[in-house]
Structure formats: C-alpha cells, structure tokens
C-alpha cells in the first residue's frame, strides 16, 4: 500500500534485501530527484528507495533543512557502515513508511558510512550522537529489509504494531508521528 507516494508497512517490499546499483545512469539520477521531492513533501529527513517501491540501494538524507531554500539532501548509493561504536544509545524514531508512531530504538552512537554519490565518487560520512547518526542507520536498515519493528524486543514490537494499526485507522499519513 502507498500513501502520498510512500510505501507503508506491512508492504512486503519493505522487508526485502535491495540490490546494489551497478551503474549510475539517468534513471538513477531521476529516481534520486523524485525521492528528494517525496521526502520533502512528506516532511522526512531520510528516505530509502524501497520506501518508494524501488528495491535498490539508494538513500537520500537531509537532517538539517528548515525550509525549501536550504533543502539539499545527500544522495548515497550502495551505502555501507564501515565503523560503529559499541556504545548503544536510545533515540525516538519515526518512519515515513510507518506513519503515526514513534518508537525508542537503541543504536550505536557513532558510525562511519561509505557510499557513492551521483558522480560515482566514494565518500565517507561520519556521524556521532545526532540525528544524522540515527538517520543513516535507519535508512541503511531499509536497504536490508529491516524496519523499526525489527529493532524492537518482541513485547515492544507487539505494542508498536498495535499503536501503528490504531494510527492507520485514524488516518495517519507519512510524516505524521504521535
């Protein structure tokens, strides 16, 4: 099921491993631009290709914009976490594909990600203790078929899924949280 162009849970596309991008061509560039627009239109700070129905390893992220004037997302192709701390910290997370709820998830508080940009250049992104750190991990999870639900303990997952069903029944849309 899609809402506002965003694939929402429990759509099976959100639980699939995504293919690596072999070639950066005009189709990938168009998809990246489409994803940037959809992320902005839905008020997100990150969006992965499976969230728009494309099972490839492409992510867009902008955790610092305040308006369309300063909106300039990073495009990450085939991103990989190459380093991460052993220290886990809790953070409230929402997801465009799971509208209407936030859940607390523990993640490493420091990561290093390598990814290609649209020019085919390999870049490194380092993030520590901030929204960018959480967002990178969250979006990379999507590329491997992992949603927020899978990061929760079984009892927390059941509660979150119940809250999510209630949020959908109330008409929750991507970008809306509790």
Topology:
Elements lengths: L1 E2 L2 E2 L18 H16 L4 E3 L9 E4 L12 E11 L3 E6 L9 E6 L1 E7 L5 E7 L2 H13 L10 H16 L9
Antiparallel strand pairs: 1-2, 3-4, 4-5, 5-8, 6-7, 8-9
InterPro entries: Peptide_deformylase, Peptide_deformylase_sf
EC number: 3.5.1.88
GO molecular function, one term: peptide deformylase activity
Please describe the structure with a list of short key phrases separated by commas or semicolons.
two-stranded antiparallel ribbon, single chain, Peptide Deformylase, five-stranded antiparallel β-sheet, alpha+beta, 3 helices, 178 residues
Q: Can you tell me the residue ranges where pLDDT is under 50 for at least 5 consecutive residues?
A: none
What amount of the residues lies in strands?
25-35%
**Overall domain count:** 1
Mean pLDDT: 95
CATH architecture: Alpha-Beta Complex
Label the overall shape: globular
Spatial sequence of strands, sheet with the most strands? 3-4-5-8-9
Q: How would you sum up the major sheet?
A: 5 strands, antiparallel
Rg, alpha carbons: 15 Å
Total number of helices: 3
Describe the 3D structure:
The protein is of the alpha+beta class. The protein has one domain (2-169): Alpha-Beta Complex (Peptide Deformylase), CATH 3.90.45. The chain contains three helices and nine strands, in the order ββαβββββββαα. It has helices spanning 26-41, 131-143, 154-169, and strands spanning 2-3, 6-7, 46-48, 58-61, 74-84, 88-93, 103-108, 110-116, 122-128. A five-stranded antiparallel sheet has the order 3-4-5-8-9. The chain starts with a strand and ends in a 9-residue tail after the last helix. InterPro entries: Peptide_deformylase, Peptide_deformylase_sf. Removes the formyl group from the N-terminal Met of newly synthesized proteins. Requires at least a dipeptide for an efficient rate of reaction. N-terminal L-methionine is a prerequisite for activity but the enzyme has broad specificity at other positions. It is an enzyme of class 3 (hydrolase).
């Amino acid at each position: 099921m899609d809402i506002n162009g965003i694939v929402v849970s429990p759509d099976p596309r959100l639980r699939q491993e995504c293919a690596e991008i072999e070639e950066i061509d005009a189709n990938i560039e168009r998809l990246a631009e489409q994803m940037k627009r959809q992320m902005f239109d839905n008020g997100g700070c990150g969006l992965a290709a499976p969230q728009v129905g494309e099972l490839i390893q492409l992510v867009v992220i902008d955790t610092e914009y305040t308006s369309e004037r300063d909106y300039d997302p990073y495009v990450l192709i085939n991103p990989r976490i190459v380093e991460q701390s052993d220290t886990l910290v809790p953070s409230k997370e929402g997801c465009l594909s799971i509208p209407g709820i936030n859940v607390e998830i523990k993640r490493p508080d420091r990561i290093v990600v390598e990814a290609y940009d649209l020019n085919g250049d390999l870049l490194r992104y380092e993030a520590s203790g901030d929204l960018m750190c959480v967002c990178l991990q969250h979006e990379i999870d999507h590329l491997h078929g992992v949603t927020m639900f899978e990061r929760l303990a079984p009892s927390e997952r059941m509660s979150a899924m119940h809250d999510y069903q209630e949020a959908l029944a109330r008409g929750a849309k991507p970008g809306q949280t509790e």
